[in-house]
Amino acid sequence: MLTIAWDVDDVLNSLTHCWFDWWRRSWDDAGATGFEAFVENPPHRILGLTRREYLASLDDFRLSGSGASLSPNPEVRRWFDEWGASCRHLALTATPLANAPNSCAWVMGHFGAWVRSYHVIPSPREGDALPVYDETKTEFLAWFGLADVLVDDSLANVQGARSLGMDAVVVPQPWNGAAGNVGDALGALTQLIQRHDSDGR
Fold first, then answer.
1. Does residue 137 lie within any of the structural domains?
2. Position 20 in a domain
3. 3-state SS assignment for residue 149
């Protein structure tokens, strides 16, 4: 049985898109920029923000009622309904440690039937004084040693997983340039599972 490591934000949910909709309702200079223009992540330069302004706004959103009530990606949720029981699953996310309890509760609330463990790489914030165990998901996966597949929207994370000999699926977002859509990514994941099952591994 394969073990799949799932990124949370922008894979299990649509955090960045939902934050952008929330942010531009209260930002006079948002202009006509659309989400498809987010060819960089973080997108602060595209929006004329400093990195500090962007992260502060994103963290405010995460800790708001809007952030807490994010809906799961419906295609991903349907995939879990159909295929989730065929694999083991863990969440592997990069988020500020202050948000980790909320993020974990969100994951378990929406995907807890399948996702049985939650792991965080703390995104650094000013004033944090935390012990550093792993700075990247690749470092965590190398230490953890139990995941077979990573599903993520970051090309760096996907490439890092592959450098460890893992399979990886990139979820298309404007900033990663991947072709197709989330349905295509989930289809590729399903093929990995089917191939694994047919090989009897």
1. yes
2. no
3. strand
Give a yes or no: residue 187 inside a domain.
yes
- Residue 87 sits in a domain whose CATH number is 3.40.50.1000
In a domain, 115, yes or no: yes
Instruction: Give me the tens of pLDDT residue by residue for the chain, a chain 201 residues long.
Output: 999 999 999 999 999 999 999 998 876 555 667 899 999 999 999 998 999 999 999 999 999 999 999 999 999 999 999 999 999 999 999 999 999 999 999 999 999 999 999 999 999 998 888 998 999 999 999 999 999 999 999 999 999 999 999 999 999 999 999 999 999 999 999 999 999 888 765
Whole-angstrom Cα distance, residue 78 to residue 97? Answer: 29
Amino acid making up residue 53: E
CB-CB contact of 192 with 149 (8 Å): yes
